[in-house]
Amino acid sequence: MTPALRRIDHPGQPARARDCALVCHACPVTLTLRAGESVTQAITDALAQAGIHAAYLRLDGATLDPLRFVIPAPAPGDGHAAWYSRTHAPARPVRLLQAGVHAGWRDDARFLHCHGLWDGAAPAMGHALCPESILAAEYQATGWAIEGAGLYVEYDPETEFSLFQPHSVPSATAANAVLATLRPNQDIGQGLRRIAARHGMQNASIHGIGSLVGTCFQDGSNLDSYATEILIRDGRVQAGNVALDVASVGFDGRVHAGKLTLDANAICVTAEVLLIAE
Fold this sequence. Notes:
Elements: E1 19-33, H1 39-50, E2 54-58, E3 63-64, E4 69-70, E5 72-73, E6 83-84, E7 94-106, E8 109-119, E9 125-128, E10 139-147, E11 149-156, E12 161-168, E13 177-182, H2 188-198, E14 203-212, E15 215-216, E16 222-223, E17 228-238, E18 241-249, E19 255-259, E20 267-277
Antiparallel strand pairs: 1-10, 1-13, 2-7, 2-10, 3-7, 4-9, 5-6, 7-8, 8-9, 11-12, 13-20, 14-17, 14-20, 15-16, 17-18, 18-19
């Protein structure tokens, strides 16, 4: 029996549109990130050198010293539905096992949003603070350069957070992908199915990060925190159906990973995803 879809109450009026999805072109890319720079500065420099406006990158295997990060935390009592923890500051180098980062813009400056899991620190997953986390060694980041759309930070009246939203960017390259964000209190799989169908994507890979109201896995395990952060480790649209394998962390810092239960995982604040046609 599928668990009931949980929901969370945000302070603002729900927006009528429950997603924003823009066609774009995604091209594989490898970027050299310099040692001794913050993740933000290293990615900013590498993207500028390559002439890339927006990107989704994987940092699997990178070593950070220091790593600074936060995890989800209960609502602080100021009207927000959820919040984030104190900053965790491991005293030793930390190797990222898997991490995904959206590279967009805020107030005309490069802005990154990164979720990852790692060894050498507890909790072993969270939201990396990219301006404060330093690359301990040169690293080859792989991922996708995005043309025709990009993520820009905007104030969101529904959640009262400043969040990434996709905007169109001039491009002459034919579209093969969709850059999207999804709003709260809808199943993430249903939302992605709707976007894929709207754009004629029968088969696609799915990449990105987000937050859920708890996390329910097909193996019967779950995280009960009413706010969890996720990294999509493997996502697929196959014949119009969506399958997502994610890692997730909640209030207590425990990490769960596996395939999501269908129709049982509501978005908490946002999900930022790149769908690439196959």
